[in-house]
Protein: leucine--tRNA ligase
Amino acid sequence: MLGSIFVSQLSIRCHSRFRLSFSRLYCHVPNLSGWDKKQSLSLEMKVEYERLWKQHVDNFSYKENESRPNTYILSMFPYPSGNLHMGHVRVYTISDTLARFYRMKGHNVLHPMGWDAFGLPAENAALQNGEDPVAWTEKNISIMRSQLKQLGCSFDWDREFATCDPNYYKWTQFIFIEMYKAGLVYRKPALVNWDPIDKTVLADEQIDENGNSWRSGAKAEKKLLTQWFVRSTKFSSTLLKELKNFSKDDWADVVNLQRSWIGEVDGTVFDWIIEGGAFTIPLPIYTANPEHVLKVGFIAVKPESMLDVMQDKNNSITYEYKTKDGDLASFQARKLDLVAKNPFTQENVPIYVVDGILPFPEKSDTYMGVPSVVDIDSIFTNTVGLKMENPSNNNVQNTSSEALCSKAQEMGFGGHPTSSALKDWLISRQRYWGTPIPIIHCIACGSVPVPEDQLPVTLPPYPSKKASTDAIASPLAQAEEWVNTTCPKCGGSATRETDTMDTFVDSSWYYLRFLDPSNDQALVGFEKTKQFMPVDVYIGGKEHGNKLNLYYARIVSHFLHQIGISSSPEPFQRLLVQGMVMGQTFIEEETGRYLKRAEVEFRGKDAFSKETGKSVIMKWDKMSKSKHNGVDPADAIGSFGVDTTRLLMLADAAPFSQRNWDPEGSKGVLSWQNNLYMLTSHFISIREAANNGELTHDKSSPVYLKGEEEVYDLRNKMLSVITQSYKHTHQFMVAIKSMQSSTKKLKQFPPEIVAFGPQFELALATLIVSVAPMAPHFASELWRGFLLAPGRLNTKSTEIKWDKPVLKQSWPRLDDEFQLPFSVSINGRDVLTTTMSYSKLKKLNEDELLQIALQQDKIKKLLGNKTIKSHTSSVRYERGALVRISVDGVKVNKEDTIDTFSKKGRQALAKKKKKEEVSA
Structure:
């Protein structure tokens, strides 16, 4: 016994000497050869760790031409407003955590960052402060870049770009021209939403349910302007169809929202030509019955629609008519001095403004009247005295719906499946700070796209006159030298388009440019898209993630796929959206006055104004300066340190839920970090004591064997929860709770387990590695301490790379023989839970899992000879598997049901297993 202990101690000392010399080689952190055991972890210590480790934790980028699997982690790039807010901190902490996790999983991770730099705020700041938008934007980018680096985000800065860079918007203009060539971009007069504050047009989707601007909050006005549109309705059917393939867990809110935008794709749109006076304009008109287009006798539009506004000259006439039931009813109508030319027959039909009687399609202000087929249309024509003639269709051979739609598609005047609710994407903006629309207007040639070899059309210097922004015109119209040009077709005098593009066009394709940012010959190399698309995880705030950028990105991605630029029609595979970070608001109940936290006195759960003593209402609101509830990320980092701020963002709330930023809520995370630091110190102290011969152990003793078994279970259960949280559910709060619990439990094991237990050493290593993606600086220092401990035991294990820092460790693996739950449900009722080794589970597919389920005695008994109607297998290899079976004619009684993956179910399973072991 004494001899074996002597050999063990000699081995420990040899390992210790070897390890100490090697750690100094890899870490490159000066003057840190030992571990300074403090009584507790202080803010000053954390700040020092962050300073020492910063250059080591930030140095990651995608490596070209490597055999590792590619993973694309993309966070929605920010507008360079000048300062990060706490919402940014949350989004980019989550993004960085996932990027670091997948690197440790052995993936070659692309994790880029750039700037959504065009838009109104920069231009408004220029107007207010006399500052050039270019200089304003560059200054803000510089500030925010340094803040992101301070946050410890491992972005690939070599790929950085801003959408206002001509090298970027050259390709935005390229996309516009390709769409123009494909007949997907057109210009027409339209009744648009005019923001009287920001002096620009907004798309319908940028107006809220109250008719207010999404950005300024002002009541939108209706204006008649000639605008540029993208024929986004062409993609209605494919966009709606693809929604079915999106994961319900990730995309539920977005799917519902986009489905409501797109509507029921049950018809089509044909472009009619409206003629009157000196103008002709196209007018898209929806119909659920394309075959009726050859029999149209009139076109109706609603009051206040575009054509009504264009010819608001005459008063409407009130007409009375009898309904089918014989009742008297009325409607108002007036005939316009315009005609609509049928795109198939070229015949003209009259246009009426109609209020009442006609069944306009949902959310549509146009209607095709077919009196020879539809009774109510016939009643209308008879009532207003419109004499109907049989329309001619001599030039149309096949009059089926399919043939008519095909011809319209071929001729470029519609015919694509769509809904009545969806409208084309209006992209014109009457502002300076945006991508110039690459069109030249020539009196002889009309609208001519700028040749590709002349791109980009760059912005001129910012016009100095402010007056133009008070009118409905782009400030670019003042840049006369820039506006006046020559036609690329005939060489005659011409003018440039002075509207700029909606910034959503810029952000509709940036995920592709990150793949190939230095390519000056193409938007992106096709092989690059094959490597990376779709984006593996797309991360952003809920207020943006559920809205327009996802919809517009899908449209552009589908188009670029159709013309062979991108390998994938859909841009994003998984979506991770975050709720807002909310600040605590204090309102003096009597006066409604907002107070700062420092002005509030707390008495138990109640709050009072320090100044007046009056009662104060506390609630959580969106952060705002006016409510004194905003938090500057720099202040949070100053109070807690970088890693603690990151952990606070990840703890206590699921990513998709709102995060209430409460300084008092930091205690749990601070306590856990302190426990981790003390556990590492404890580990080093025990190992040093063993190294000095102050501890002995007996590997055959029941205490030692039981302790090692408990640590084995602890490590694998912890790793199972954490890996599931990182990889599948993104419930980082669950991972943190598991790590917090494991930290406390590891501290409770007896010294002989800490000193001589290989499983304890492996469990502590696993814990520190698991912390690293969330708190990279702190974990780097803990790992340094872990490596300083003498007496290494897992020297031949592949689980610990003793010569590598923590962020270069491989993500820990479950033990192959660790038992995971395997559960079966029948008709939605959980009926069986057993266990299966990890090595076996990870080799099985869904059909094999079903066969194993059907071999279970209880399942055989419940199913009898019934035929399975359907089945699915939910496999989370690190957490187990659940087979769901649907069978007609099988009733599952309450006594046959059990808990499965619930905490109660796992506890019941553990008790059952323990009883079986005792009886054995």
About this structure: The chain is about 40% helix and 20% strand. The mean pLDDT is 87. Residues 89 and 633 are 7 Å apart (CA to CA).
